[in-house]
Amino acid sequence: MGELNQIPLKTDVLIVGGGCTGVGIFRDLALHGVDCLLIDAKDFASQTSSASSKMLHGGIRYLESFDFALVKEALHEKNLWLKLAPNLCQELPFYLPVYWESKYPFLWMTKVALKTYDFLSGFQNSAHKILRAKETILKLPGIKKEGLKGAGVYYDAIVDDAKLTLECLYDSLLEPNANAFNYTKIDKVEAFGDSYKAELTNTLTGEKNSIIAKKVVFATGPFSDDLLMNLGFSWKNRLLPTKGSHLWIRKNSLDIPYPLVLQTFDGRIIFVIPQRDAILVGTTEIQAKGDFFDLKCSEEEIDYLLKNLQEFFPAAGVSRKDILSTFAGIRPLVKKEGGNAHNTSREHQVFRPGKNLYVIFGGKYTTFRVMGREISSEIVHGFGGTYNPGTTLQALRQPSVFPTFTPWELSEQAVLESLSHEKVRTFSDLIHRRMGLLSLSNWNHKKSFVDFFTGMLDDMSRYIIVNKAEITKFWP
Ligand SMILES: Cc1cc2nc3c(=O)[nH]c(=O)nc-3n(C[C@H](O)[C@H](O)[C@H](O)COP(=O)(O)OP(=O)(O)OC[C@H]3O[C@@H](n4cnc5c(N)ncnc54)[C@H](O)[C@@H]3O)c2cc1C
Q1: Options 1.20.120.140, 3.30.420.40, 3.40.50.300, 3.50.50.60; which CATH number does 10-49+162-238+343-393 get?
Q2: Whose CA is nearest to atom 2 of ligand 1?
Q3: What is the C-alpha to C-alpha distance for residues 459 and 145, in angstroms, rounded to an integer?
Q4: Residue 215 burial by Cβ neighbours in a 10 Å radius (0-12, 13-18, 19+)
Q5: Is 98 in the pocket of ligand 1 (CB under 6 A)?
Q6: Does 92 have pLDDT greater than 70?
Q7: pLDDT bucket at 447, cuts 50 / 70 / 90
């Protein structure tokens, strides 16, 4: 998988940022035979790209702002990934209950919206349905009955966001011209003849390296404004950073077999999505500032999400005791005059702050492949190559050791395989993004996990720095 220990002295394209956006560009370039190097200051997919609502979706909400082109493109991408990576995403019916006090209180309005959604998917979506109140209650027994008029049912997909980014990365690394280093941050970049010289630091060891790159792409999401200004670019704030938090709650705390889209008391929507052995609840929308790395969900955000659950599931008694874990991320929205977090478009934008320099952010997880195509095609043409837009339509070739939606055994052999082949650098990389633990209720098996990993300490130490304290930090 192109696992070189040494950062090369030069590359044609240096991509900074290993979330879905950077990896989308990387894969497209790699498959076009372009010599490219991807770096991330932390683990790949460890920031926004593992803190999403974990949906590949057109965005039912964006119909409200007539963002039809974005919805159409995203629906197309969603249906494409269901074919390219069926192990990482699943289509499910999403239930949208309608109440007298909802923002859109008439079922015919829901019908029009869902018809439009199906139409924009080119009828690739499974067809929507409209349910009356009685049918809705049969499907969702615990839901608030007072004022319920019925529900719309439409189809979107759930996804393992971190894994999709990682599997795209592993797929790219099958190409000999592609290489990637996590825990490598860019500290400085300056012109060097027709190219750029970048100084890089390994954030785990402090080791410094420099590299000459003909082109540099910044796919650093919500970190872009600060980073570009720190690097001395003539750059003003172009982001509208918007925090969103989620809760994982116990599966048995709500009696819902399907994902729900709740129209909240403050005119927003939140998703409640049963997945494997837990339920994902989110999200909030708060304008944010400060350091965006490794964010936490605040007490106020927990209160807000619980309050909505209590409103729509009055008999369930959901409370803090049902929370398994929480996570938060920043939407890297492109700032627009007079825009706020709610009304700002999810369109992405490409900036060119200098010759052979690119900055890209905005967009949605669902559309990362087409975002990558935009930059990759320009670069391939710039090098005099032929760009084939169909290149990234091939299925991913390197599945993760630990699958997402099918059960796996806790085996020493699988852990060692992941440690040696999946760019794991820390124990947290292994259990969070490679194994998918913690977010779900594997908490039930705390003791067996601690015993298992403690028994493997010597073997794991051949690959990462880990000790007993590190393990019990995650399962105290
Ligand atoms: C709460 C929330 C819910 C969302 N839900 C959905 C959803 O359900 N569906 C959907 O389609 N979209 C969703 N989105 C949007 C989607 O998650 C983001 O658009 C996408 O993940 C952004 O990815 P990115 O690669 O641009 O940024 P990131 O994933 O943040 O990647 C940027 C990377 O840059 C790295 N970096 C920063 N500084 C440096 C440096 N100096 N050197 C090297 N690397 C650096 C960071 O470590 C990071 O890994 C959601 C977003 C949020 C916040």
Answers
A1: 3.50.50.60
A2: 52
A3: 55
A4: buried
A5: no
A6: yes
A7: confident
